[in-house]
Amino acid sequence: MSNEKHWSETKKLRKILIIANLYHASPRIPALCKFLPENGWEPTIITPRLANLETVFNAPSKDVLAKIRLIEIGEPVSFETKKNETPFRSRTQRGLKRTIMKIDSNSDQRLSRALEMQYWRLYHVMNYPDPNRSWCKPALMAAKGLTENESFDLLLSSSSPIVTHLVAKDVHEQCGIPWIAELRDLWSQNHNLHMGKLMKTRTERLERDTLKGASILVTVSPTWAQDLISVHGSKEVRCITNGYDPQSYSSQPCSKTKNFTITYTGQIYRGKQDPSKFLMALKQAMEGGLMDSKNVEFRLFGPGNDTVTRLASELGLTDRVTQYGVVTRQASLDHQCESQLLLLMNWDEEGQFGVIPLKLFEYMGSGTPIIVTGGKPGDEVSKIIEETRCGACEYSLQDLVRTLSSYYAEWSKKGAIHSDRDDEMVDKYSFRNLSHDYSKVFDEAIAQNAGS
Q1: pLDDT in tens, 365-416
Q2: What is the C-alpha to C-alpha distance for residues 336 and 334, in angstroms, rounded to an integer?
Q3: Using CA atoms, how far apart are residues 400 and 402, in angstroms rounded to an integer?
Q4: Which parts of the chain sit beneath pLDDT 70?
């Protein structure tokens, strides 16, 4: 699919060719592209065929896609789909996977995580360097066809999956187009991948070799920018965080729920996010008479979580905690807006305090106050919460109970929670402003290439 007609009146804009898998790169890449013409750029995206996009939680809306020139090529093979298939052939290996996935949530978590880590190490060996590598050939052919008939001023590849960089490397070497490589997730340092020492060394070598031709590397967290510098030395690295699109939210004030509703949207990652502290704080606040349980509901919208179910039962919170399952992205945004409070479970995995969940920016866009658990003081999430004044980060159970009770008391007395957020600082994270910031990085890459 290609929206050639839409772009017939934008010939004066500079052209950027983007290699990205929109099953993974949404909403970031489509949202940035939506505002690039305001900054003098006409984007063309090469992506896998967008079949069943309505099933993808972060999928861009159809009206956004209608304004972007898309070249859909090859069948989509997402990591999420791949990992639910059988990556190994032997019966023993298939049995190992079943054993890992069926480990009871009450069992020894160390054993569970150790087995799971070994499984994924084998998985990535079997699918090296990328489960999506079969997309490389059709994507490269599409890029070659485009560059033979059109002149592009800049090339941008966005991972994950990292196959986008493999494609961009060949395009850059064949055409000489200045290239920016964006890593929304790190590559050899990816916090979601479990690699042994040898595989990590091999992957880091491939990363350096693949990206050496890129003029600038971009990532989404200041901490990750420093991590990239540690791998790539003197190469230029920039940080353009994720953000939110104000146009995804209604311009009219939404109606709040009648109860004191605390909402969490999205998945809870085992071993990385911990719901127990919040649930215990909720229990203590109600038992201590600081919150009236009849007025309180904790709602979760996303894949069902066994740990939450178990903890709610153990703490006697079954009638106050409701898991509604997966909803559309727009419904998720609506539920955020109507809530009194939003829960963000920050990353608790040691050494991964540079993670900034995309959920944080969605929450900021909703205007609803945010309460953050997990992480540590001074991490990237706490810095953003502090500068925008969008909520509170609490690290101890005692502080969490106190802040939660304070929010409830204000709501009980005034019927609403006052927000002290700094709208100007929040607006800095809108995709419109981030697109403007990115256009400056584009200019840097072109200038760097001209001077080389």
Answers
A1: 999 999 999 999 999 999 999 999 999 999 999 999 999 999 999 999 999 9
A2: 5
A3: 5
A4: 1-11, 52-63, 76-121, 124, 194, 251-252, 451-452
Please give the model's pTM, rounded to 2 decimal places. 0.86
User: What one-letter code names the amino acid at 413?
Assistant: K
CA distance 360 to 389: 13
**Structural domain spans, the chain:** 5-78+130-243+430-451, 88-121, 246-427
Q: Which amino acid is at 296?
A: V
User: What DSSP state is assigned to residue 294?
Assistant: G
DSSP annotation of 26 reads T
Sheet holding 216-219, edge to edge: 69-72, 41-47, 14-19, 154-159, 179-183, 216-219, 236-239
CATH code for the domain defined by 5-78+130-243+430-451: 3.40.50.2000
In CATH terms, the fold of domain 246-427 is: Rossmann fold (3.40.50)
User: CB 420: neighbour CB atoms within 10 A?
Assistant: 9
* 3-state helix vs strand vs coil in the chain, percent to 5: 50, 15, 35
Strand 154-159 to strand 370-373: parallel, antiparallel, or no bridges (unpaired)? unpaired
Q: How far apart are CA 61 and CA 407, in angstroms?
A: 34
Sign of CA dihedral 30, 32, 33, 37: positive
What single-letter DSSP state applies at residue 95?
Answer: H
Q: What are the beta bridge partners of residue 371?
A: 343, 392
Alpha helices in 182-294 (DSSP H): 197-211, 222-232, 276-287
